């Protein structure tokens, strides 16, 4: 993976294999859901990914839950559900490895949200 400079000097990744990488946290009351998606441009890569949810505590990030998956079709959606604590701050990390034509590329995307 190379990096490039985007508008206003923001550094953005210039992936060779990864076309799209997203992660999101939503809450319906205290019912939490983390969802993630990765794909390559031609939907032909081998993908492995792990979606992990953490809650922030005074001692650091506390592990809540994890979902793992693999795909040989160039796309890997993952999701997991958890019960949140009102007012607590959560993060979801989606770590992936995308392999195409013998070249592996790893990346991690993170989302943050407070449980209402």
List keywords for this structure.
mainly beta; single chain; 116 residues
The end-to-end distance, rounded to whole angstroms, is 37 Å
Radius of gyration (Å): 15 Å
- Helix run count: 0
Q: Quaternary arrangement of the chains shown?
A: single chain
Beta-strand content bin = over 45%
SSE pattern: EEEEEEEEE
Low-pLDDT segments: 1-7
What is the molecular shape? elongated
Strand order in the sheet with the most strands? 6-5-8-9
What proportion of the residues is helical, as a percent range? Answer: under 10%
Average pLDDT: 91
Sheet having the most strands: 4 strands, antiparallel
- Tell how many strands the DSSP assignment holds: 9
Structure classification: mainly beta
Topology:
Elements: E1 2-6, E2 10-14, E3 20-28, E4 31-39, E5 46-57, E6 60-71, E7 75-83, E8 89-100, E9 103-114
Antiparallel strand pairs: 1-2, 3-4, 4-7, 5-6, 5-8, 8-9
């Amino acid at each position: 993976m190379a990096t490039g400079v985007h508008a206003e000097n923001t550094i953005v990744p210039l992936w060779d294999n990864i076309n799209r990488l997203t992660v999101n946290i939503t809450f319906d009351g205290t019912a939490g859901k983390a969802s993630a998606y990765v794909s390559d441009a031609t939907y032909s890569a081998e993908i492995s990914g792990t979606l992990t949810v953490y809650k922030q505590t005074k001692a650091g990030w506390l592990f809540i839950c994890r979902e793992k998956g693999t795909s040989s079709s160039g796309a890997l959606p993952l999701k997991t559900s958890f019960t949140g604590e009102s007012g607590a701050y959560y993060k979801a990390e989606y770590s992936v490895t995308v392999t195409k034509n013998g070249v592996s590329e790893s990346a991690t995307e993170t989302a943050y949200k407070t449980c209402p």
